[in-house]
């Protein structure tokens, strides 16, 4: 059976933590930042985990991470 290919776009966007959860960056931090409050922008800095229902699909895209 051949090796599975990693989806490179997904590999750049997601990482797997030590406990096996999938980590992602937050959206809405690229442009139009002048109309967002300081608090909004500060809370967008930190990464968060992917929801459990979606993590199975993401793990299929990145089988070796």
SSE pattern: HEEHEH
Count the helices. How many?
Answer: 3
Rg over CA atoms, rounded to whole Å, is: 15 Å
Number of distinct beta strands: 3
Oligomer: single chain
> Low-confidence runs (pLDDT<50, min 5 residues)?
none
The rough form would be described as: elongated
Beta fraction of the residues? 5-15%
Please tag this protein with its features.
3 strands; three-stranded antiparallel β-sheet; single chain; 12% strand; alpha+beta; 35% helix; Factor Xa Inhibitor; elongated; 3 helices; 65 residues
Outline the secondary-structure elements.
Elements: H1 8-13, E1 14-16, E2 22-24, H2 38-44, E3 48-49, H3 52-61
Antiparallel strand pairs: 1-2, 2-3
What does this protein look like?
The protein is α+β, with helices and mostly antiparallel strands and 65 residues long. It has one domain (8-61): Factor Xa Inhibitor (Irregular), CATH 4.10.410.60. It has three helices and three strands. The chain has helices spanning 8-13, 38-44, 52-61; strands at 14-16, 22-24, 48-49. Strands 1-2-3 form a three-stranded antiparallel sheet. β1 (14-16) and β2 (22-24) form a beta hairpin. The longest helix has 10 residues, at 52-61. It is elongated. The two termini are 19 Å apart.
């Amino acid at each position: 059976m051949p090796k599975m290919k990693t989806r490179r776009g997904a590999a750049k966007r997601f990482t797997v933590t030590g406990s096996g959860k999938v980590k992602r960056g937050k959206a809405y931090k690229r442009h139009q930042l002048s109309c967002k409050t300081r608090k909004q922008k500060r809370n967008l800095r930190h990464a968060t985990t992917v929801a459990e229902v979606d993590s199975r699909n993401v793990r299929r895209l990145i089988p070796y991470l």
